[in-house]
Amino acid sequence: EVRDYRQVMALANRHDWWAAFANEVLIARAVEQMTGMTPPPRAVRLRVLLCELTRAMAHLAFLTPLTKAADGTRSVGTTVAVGAREALQRVLEEASGGRIHFMANRIGGLREDVPADWSAHVEDALATVQRALPLIAACTVNDTAFVERHSGVGVLSLADATALGVSGPAGRASGLDVDLRRDDPAPGYAELELRTVVRTAGDALARVACQIDEVDLAVDLALQCLQGIPGGAVNVRLPSTIAPPEGSVYNWGEAALGIAGVHLVSRGERTPWRLRLRTASFNNVQALSCLLPGTALDQLPTALGSFAVVVGDIDK
Question: How far apart are CA 137 and CA 133, in angstroms?
Fold first, then answer.
């Protein structure tokens, strides 16, 4: 709240580093909504594409440790999961110059356009992920020993998930059929064909299965985005000072681990009067109080490993 709106963008991706791009978009869209600014069509499509690439990368990061054998040794699934994640990391770094804090967004669009041959590199990266998914599934949700270890462990009921505001794959694994990409689509999502990944068991196995399917869905949406990316500019010319008119706005979206939101209040000055975040992991981590009681000590790593959270996102 002591920084101007351009400087706020530099902090937007620090709390949930696995949803860095989505966090940047939320801040940018909130300011754009208050100022009546419309990003160019090319920027809108590229924003969706970059969001889905980071979503797939985030899920692969959480899935990678789960692909190891029970004794902790690496499997073929571990190797391909790391390779798939790095393939996505490379194209994101190529587009933004950063590996974690991308800073690719700006108010009014993107900071700069993607390289001329970037789309072809993205297609190659997505093909790598598609080849990896069956091998990841083979050593997790399709492996008998893995299924036995995860079935019935750390069950989160639909009622508890709803009461606690759990969202994202953790909520959908318990049957909570909510996905803002479908239910309240951000600019660029309404034009895409979107299916929703939902399970009902609510246990560790269902959460892992949801994350694998979320990677597949993100790849599908990214491939749709690659078809017919509009030409033209990727940002609009900004005034020397950004000072939204007095008022407030709440902007939300589907980040990798669930619903993220930004409440922005302006008094017509260069800095926001109030800026508050609704972070996915902060709500989701409350569910541990419901799903962990009764879990055997030797099952705790299984229950916790299936429930993805980002520590920076719960540090309030």
Answer: 6
The answer to pTM > 0.90 is yes
Compute the average pLDDT of residues 9-32. 89
User: What percent of the chain shows pLDDT beyond 70?
Assistant: 100
In whole angstroms, give the CA distance from residue 277 to residue 13: 12
Report the first-to-last Cα separation within the chain, whole angstroms: 16
SS3 readout for the chain: CCCCHHHHHCCCCCCCHHHHHHHHHHHHHHHHHHHCCCCCHHHHHHHHHHHHHHHHHHHHHHHHHHHCCCCCCCCHHHHHHHHHHHHHHHHHHHHHCCCCCCCCEECCEECCCCCCCHHHHHHHHHHHHHHHHHHHHHCCCCCHHHHHHHCCCCCCCHHHHHHHCCCHHHHHCCCCCCCHHHHCCCCCCCCCCCCCCCCCCCCHHHHHHHHHHHHHHHHHHHHHHHCCCCCCCCECCCCCCCCCCCEEEEEEEEECCEEEEEEEEECCCCCCCEEEEECHHHHHHHHHHHHCCCCCHHHHHHHHHCCCCCHHHHCC
- Contact between residue 118 and residue 94 where contact means Cβ atoms under 8 Å apart: yes
Residue 139 pLDDT level (bands cut at 50, 70, 90): very high
Q: What angle do CA 174, 180, 183 make, to 5 degrees?
A: 95
